[in-house]
Amino acid sequence: MIKVAFASNDRVNVNLHFGAADTLMVYDISPGYAELLGVGEFVQANMKGENRFKSLSDGQTNIIDLQLSAEELERLAAKPPEDKVIAKLKFLEGCSAIYAASIGTSSIKRLIMAGIQPIIVGTGQTIEDLLNEVSLALHCGGLSWVERAKAKAERAAAQNPAAPHTPSGNGLRLITSIEELE
Predict the structure, then answer these.
(1) What pTM, to 2 d.p., does this model score?
(2) I need a labelling partner for 181 at 20 to 30 A (CA). Which of 45, 74, 96, 128 fits?
(3) How many distinct helices (H) and strands (E) make up the chain?
(4) Residue 164 counted as domain residue
């Protein structure tokens, strides 16, 4: 129903800075199910600046919600994009969100302009746990960005009633209620 990406070099944990990520994984997530749609591999970038070693501590999540002024949007449009991010933004087209261990301010603004929710998570966050969190939110609500993405996907499906995506059967079964955790 919605596509979500993860910055991971081990394909298990979210452990990479978005701008320097050499691997991005995109999943299609529905309530109770997730399927890996693709893995993008990029040239590894060396990070610079004061935030290059910054990350959140275990278990923390930071959902970015910026409101950009018209001047900021104009300035971003005029600024030539950084090569390391262009290919990633193209790969992420159609995604609702990207989970990463860190995301620079410039990339946050560009992701938001592209309609992709940037989410910074602390070390130790597994992709499977985050997929379950999104699955639960798709079924029960509770995450505003998921609700916006779900509404956008439903509007798009109503306007373009193309053939529905048929799962390959190679996906992950996810939770849709707290009771399933017990």
Answers:
(1) 0.75
(2) 96
(3) 5, 7
(4) no
Contact call for residues 112 and 61 (beta carbons, < 8 A): no
- Number of domains making up the chain: 1
- Rounded to the nearest angstrom, the gap between the alpha carbon of residue 37 and the centroid of all alpha carbons in its chain is 13
Question: CA-CA distance, 74 to 121, in Å (whole number)?
Answer: 29
CB neighbour list of residue 52: distance below 8 Å, 6 or more residues apart: 17
Q: Domain holding 14: CATH number?
A: 3.30.420.130
Please state, in angstroms and rounded to a whole number, the distance separating the CA atoms of residues 126 and 131: 9
Is residue 138 in some structural domain?
Answer: no
107: domain range? Answer: 2-129
- 40-82 pLDDT, tens per residue? 998 765 555 554 555 555 556 666 555 666 776 666 666 544 4
Place of tokens 């910054």: 54
**Phi, psi angles (nearest 5°) of residue 155:** -65, -45
Per DSSP, what are the bridge partners of residue 63? Answer: 119
Q: Which two tokens stand for residue 77?
A: 């449009």
Beta strand 117-121 pairing with 172-173: unpaired
d(CA 35, CA 146): 17
**117: which 2 tokens?**
């929710």
